[in-house]
Amino acid sequence: MAYGSPFTSSEQVFLWIESFTNYEKIPSSRPFRLDRMEAMAELAGHPEKCAPVIHVAGSKGKGSVSTIIASLLQRSGLSTGRYLSPHVSDYRERIGLADRFFEEDIYCAAGEELRQIVEKAPVAYPQFFDPTRGNGEAPTFFELCTLLFFLCCRRAQVDIMVVEVGMGGRLDATNIVNPLVSVITPIELEHTAYLGNTIAAIAGEKAGIIKKGKPVVLAPQQAEALSVFQSIAQERQAPLYYLPDMVEVKEIHISPRGTQWTWKVKEGETSHLWPENLRAHPQNLSIPLIGEIQAWNTLQALAALYRIFPDTEWTALLSELSSLSLPARFERIHEDPEVILDGAHTPRSIKLCLTTFCTLYGEGNILLFGCAADKDVESMANILAPHFREIILTRPGNFKKSDLPRMEEAFRKSGGSFKTLEETDAAINLAIHKAHEKGKALLVCGSFYLAAEARRYFLGAPLGDPDKGKR
What we know:
Blueprint: H1 10-18, H2 34-43, E1 53-57, H3 62-75, E2 80-83, E3 95-97, H4 104-124, H5 126-129, H6 141-156, E4 160-164, E5 181-184, H7 192-195, H8 199-206, E6 216-218, H9 223-235, E7 240-242, H10 243-246, E8 247-255, E9 258-265, H11 276-279, E10 283-287, H12 293-308, H13 314-318, E11 331-335, E12 338-341, H14 347-361, E13 365-369, H15 377-384, E14 388-393, H16 404-413, E15 418-420, H17 424-438, E16 442-445, H18 448-460
Parallel strand pairs: 1-4, 1-5, 2-4, 5-6, 6-7, 12-16, 13-14, 13-16, 14-15
Antiparallel strand pairs: 2-3, 8-9, 9-10, 11-12
């Protein structure tokens, strides 16, 4: 691969990275291999070691937990790199600081470093990267994004990094780090073609981020997942902190402006983790993220931070996060009519999203739904269909393959009344037109890719033109 002109913008860097195989878009039967990532990190001089790491995995909520942790660290005065996926509107959402993107010169310089590494890789490690040698192939999109993040953090001289796993954990490209603490959010069936088709198998993959002797903070889990985590933590002599054993949560209240709840520390072996002033009596907390799950996400973030930095008043800093937000995580993008975007794409996350939506806006509203072909659309349709007056089905953009006939059959069997518009823009515009006309709230869900299309539409186009998208 020959060098091109020097990068002059982050957009150029990401366009170049896009030219590599993206398994977020194209399913692969290729086994994932961590040794490829380790080889590139070696060529780069191990930028993953430039600062301490907090590593976050899970099926649901890991983006929220990562964002809360990174935001609190930043508020404490630590320059904090944050790695998330997927992005919704801008690749820099994946790779940045806790409260802003890196400067453009950081992306460009790190991109040049990355391009040199890609040039050297087939020569230094032909068994991994030389396409003419057996299983050799060029680096993947996610491998390059991950290494770019570490290179950016090294150039920006961050104090600490919060790294969200892309998929699984054991063989994920991020798992070259040796974290201060591992954090694992709730597990459910997902990516079964890659991770296994049982909760236990998927938990085993997620548990791959548990490192010898390093603490792990665990969210509420199904029994079979919990058993796997307990066994692996014991095997690796990793202290395990299980959140339901640590805290009691009650009186959760959600509103369009966030989540408030009361909680208290449970007496037991882990109560010493919390400062004495928090152990004395029940505490009230709030966060601008919407949904009951955000109470647990926040407490898990706090537990991880108190475990590694016990002398900082993390709960006090939480009150300073009044502007905290996450694109397409129950994002209230418009108020009249109310429009909620959520990237929920598994049965459990759809159920959580629906519960929050109906709590705020009641039944009989408008649903715009589209999901990728590899998702459990039948279960999601059964959960969603009884609660909406009108349902519009569409493709979740063109990034991933979808199956509209299967979507239609799933909603037909669930008894839902629906209309299908294959063109995403037309479907979005019809949905907002109906919500505006009938004075109803609109929920857009099923895919981060659909949420990304809707977000671009709502932020950049007049609302309520039913012919837009058809011209």
